[in-house]
Write a structure and sequence with these properties.
261 residues; alpha+beta; 2 domains; six-stranded mixed β-sheet; four-stranded mixed β-sheet; 19 strands; disordered N terminus
Amino acid sequence: MKYFIYLFSLIILCSCSKPEENFIKIPSQFSVSVQEEIRSQSPTRGLVLELKSMKASYCAEDSLIHSSSYSGDLLTVSISETYKEYDCIQAAYYLKSRIPIPEFQDSIHIQIQLGASAVVNCTIFNYPTYYSIQINNGTGLVNTYEKTYKIPYNMIWGYVYPKSLNEDGQLLMNSFLRDIEFDCSAGRLQQGYYSYFSIVDKDVLVLNENLSIAGIYQNFYHPHEKSEEDLIKLFNSLASKYVNLVGYKINTGSGLEFKSN
């Protein structure tokens, strides 16, 4: 009788336990970066601290649970292991955790606990044109970018592509680009990282998002002096002019987004 009770208890215990392989283990190293979030609703600007695995070897739905608390000028963050409910066919994604950063003036101190043992202390500094993060002590974080430049409010950026791959499509794309060149000689950005994109050699903009576009496309950015109302009127007009001819997605530093159908 005792044997059957023991066997029954063992079956229940095994059925309720979560398999070890279904836990997302905390990697030994993360890349860390400060990123601006531009929103369509007030407040239109915010900051997040992004921790990202060094390798893209996770499922799209995988994430890490984090908790945080803020007192004085210290933000305390704890990253925990997460149980995953589902598996995937292709494990080719980065494991990320994005932690909101409270508003601060000159600097904010952050203590990050990675699992049960590793603790990292760092400081984020707020300069007129960029943010920077300094790792003070601890191991497990790799500083991805020396600086995160602030995106100007009077800026648009995005991409455009022709919906036809013939020569006429290329001409229409170039025509669209000329229509939004407000002043291509002024307000050019410094090379570096801007949260949503990077500016590299020869003033080329490289978007962070992966574009699933077959064929040619063109990234761009331009400063402008238009009001939000004028921008909305302009892009409503361009949407009618180029309907079914070009595709595009354009964001503004004030939180607006314009996208083709």
